[in-house]
TrEMBL record:
Keywords: Isomerase, Magnesium, Metal-binding, Phosphoprotein
GO annotation (BP), single: carbohydrate metabolic process
The protein, known as: Alpha-D-phosphohexomutase alpha/beta/alpha domain-containing protein
GO molecular function, one term: metal ion binding
C-alpha cells in the first residue's frame, strides 16, 4: 500500500544503494488507444463534438473516437491544467453550454464531455438537450441486456426512477446502492453485475472491460451503440417515461450535524411515507421522491427531487425544505 511505499522510500531513497533491477519505458497511451479502438468500429459514420475540458482526456479522446470511425469536432482538447475555458465538470449545466452550441452549429449526432481526469462523462443529444449520467447508464445497460439476454446493473440513490423501471421492464436486474466511487465499484464486484454507475457520470463496465470508470472508453461504447441504431440519441431517450427532476442541490451544514439531520429525517418522514435508507433517506411520495443524504467528503447535505409532474415536484421539494428549516437548515 501507499504507506509501505513511503516507508520504503524513507529507508532506501536517500542512500547510494545499488541494485540489480532494470528500467523499462513504455508508451501506455498508444497501447490504450490501440486497445479501445480495437474493440469498436462504427457501423455508420457519426459526427461527435468532444469537449475534453482541457483535462487528461485531451491526451486520448479525439484519437479514440476517430480511431473507431467517428467524425470528431474537438472542443478544448488541449491539455491545460489551468482550465482556461471552463471547469471540466460535465454535471454542471453551464460547463456544457459551449458543447451544446457546438452540437447545434455542427449538426452533430451528439456531444460528449469529460471531467478533468476523464473518469466521468456527460452528453448532449442531437438537439442540444443535456443527457444526465443516469440516462447514459440506462442506455448502455439496455444495450448489454440486448446483447447478452440478461444483465445486472448497479445505480446510485441519486438516479432517476426511470432507471430501475425501464431496466427491469426489459428483463434486467437493477440494484440501488450508495453514492461513492469505491462503494459503487465494490458493489458491482460483489453482485457480479455487468455495469454500474452514478448520476455524476461515473460508469463502470465489467462487461467486456476491466471494471473501472473510463470516460473515453465509455464514449467509444456509446457512439458505437448509436451507430447500430436507426434512431438518434434524442429518439432513443424519447421512448422513456419523462420525469421532472432537479439537479443535485448542495446544502451547507456543519460536519457534526449531518448524521443528526439524516437520522431525524428518517424518523420524521418514515412515519408518513415509505423511506429507503440505502444511503441517507430517499422518501417515496405519490408520484415522486425526494432524497437527503450526507456527503462522504464535505460538510454538506445533498438533496434531489423527482416527480411525474412539475407541481408534484414542487410540493415534494417544499415539504422537505420546510422541514429542514424547522431544524435550522436553510436551503439557498
Amino acid at each position: 500500500n501507499i504507506q509501505n511505499l513511503r516507508n520504503f522510500d524513507a529507508e532506501y531513497g536517500a542512500g547510494d544503494q545499488k541494485g540489480g533491477g532494470s528500467l523499462l519505458r513504455k508508451n501506455v497511451i498508444l497501447d490504450y488507444i490501440k486497445d479501445v479502438t480495437g474493440r469498436f468500429q462504427l457501423r455508420k459514420p457519426l459526427k461527435v463534438v468532444l469537449d475534453c475540458g482541457n483535462g487528461a482526456g485531451s491526451l486520448v479522446g479525439v484519437e479514440v473516437l476517430e480511431g473507431i470511425g467517428a467524425n470528431v469536432v474537438p472542443l478544448y482538447c488541449e491539455s491545460d491544467g489551468t482550465f482556461p475555458n471552463h471547469h471540466p465538470d460535465p454535471t454542471v449545466d453551464e460547463n456544457l453550454s459551449d458543447l451544446i452550441m457546438a452540437v447545434q452549429k455542427e449538426g452533430a449526432d451528439l456531444g460528449i464531455g469529460f471531467d478533468g481526469d476523464a473518469d466521468r462523462i456527460g452528453a448532449v443529444d442531437d438537439r442540444g438537450n443535456i443527457v444526465r449520467g443516469d440516462l447514459l447508464l440506462l442506455l448502455l445497460g439496455l444495450d448489454i441486456l440486448r446483447k447478452n439476454g440478461n444483465a445486472k446493473m448497479i445505480f446510485d440513490v441519486k438516479c432517476s426512477q426511470v432507471i430501475p423501471e425501464e431496466f427491469t421492464k426489459a428483463g434486467g436486474e437493477a440494484i440501488m446502492w450508495k453514492t461513492g466511487h469505491s462503494l459503487i465499484k465494490n458493489k458491482m464486484t460483489e453482485e457480479g453485475a455487468d455495469l454500474a454507475g452514478e448520476l455524476s457520470g461515473h460508469i463502470f463496465f465489467a462487461d467486456d472491460y476491466f471494471g473501472f470508470d473510463d470516460a473515453p472508453y465509455c464514449a467509444a461504447r456509446l457512439v458505437e451503440m448509436l451507430s447500430r441504431s436507426e434512431m438518434s440519441l434524442f429518439e432513443m431517450l424519447k421512448g422513456f417515461n419523462v420525469y421532472q427532476s432537479t439537479p443535485e442541490i448542495r446544502i451547507d451544514i456543519p460536519e457534526n450535524r449531518k448524521k443528526e439531520i439524516i437520522d431525524a429525517a428518517a424518523q420524521h418522514f418514515g412515519k408518513l411515507y415509505e423511506v429507503l435508507d440505502v444511503d441517507g433517506v430517499r422518501i417515496l411520495f405519490e408520484g415522486g421522491w425526494g432524497l437527503l443524504r450526507a456527503s462522504n467528503t464535505q460538510p454538506i447535505l445533498v438533496a434531489r427531487f423527482e416527480a411525474e409532474k412539475l407541481d408534484q415536484l414542487q410540493e415534494i421539494r417544499s415539504e422537505i425544505e420546510e422541514w429542514l428549516e424547522t431544524k435550522g437548515v436553510l436551503v439557498q
